[in-house]
Amino acid sequence: MESSRDLLTELLDQERRLVFDTFDDAVAWDVGVALREAGVAAGLPIAISVRRNGQRLFHAALPGASADNDAWLDRKCAVVDRYGHSSLYVGEQFRSRGGDFDTDARLDTSSFAAHGGAFPVVLRGTGCIGTVAVSGLPQREDHRLVVETLTAYLDATPASRSAPGSSPSSAS
Question: Which residues on adjacent β-strands are paired with residue 132?
Fold first, then answer.
């Protein structure tokens, strides 16, 4: 099992690397469809949300997902909106300090959940403008699915391959 410090460093690296040059309705739709296709291909019981500035631009629920997953999406996205980091990062940051988000953040747990699965939509030159989230799997698997899908999407997007400051892995 990796150390808390290593995990936090890895999570921050993901956030620095997975940056959009543009994020409009079409991009949100494409990202959501990519997540849905990945979920369908693997037979995952997930709900998916893609939001920009609080507006839900994409939502899907695959077989096995429930309204509870929608509530988890809302709560995890609220953490990203408040802290500007992935919901997994925020939860791990509290745990690495010996704390517990549910008690130490002093936020309403019916509105906030620092469990993995919600990732910030970071727009180059602007910062966090939204969220991409999955609910239905164990928290690290939710997070991994989002990160893998965003990585594949950004690597396949011509603008991200040629953008100044893009990661070397997206330059191939």
Answer: 50, 119
Tokens of 96: 């690495």
- For residues 84 and 59, the answer to whether their CB atoms sit within 8 Å is no
Residue position matching structure tokens 């970071």: 122
Model confidence pLDDT, tens digit, residues 108-154: 999 999 999 999 999 999 999 999 999 999 999 999 999 999 999 99
From CA 118, how far away is CA 4, in angstroms rounded?
A: 19
User: What angle do the packed helices 67-83 and 87-96 form, to 10 degrees?
Assistant: 70
Contacts of 121 (CB under 8 A, 6+ apart): 20, 23, 50, 51, 52, 128, 129, 130, 131, 132
To the nearest 10 degrees (0 to 180), the angle between helices 4-17 and 87-96 is 150
Nearest to 19 by CA among 161, 114, 134, 135: 161
Give 34-70 pLDDT, tens digit per residue. 999 999 999 999 999 999 999 999 999 999 999 999 9
User: Are 68 and 94 in contact, with CB atoms under 8 Å apart?
Assistant: no
Closest CA to 21 of 168, 166, 160: 160
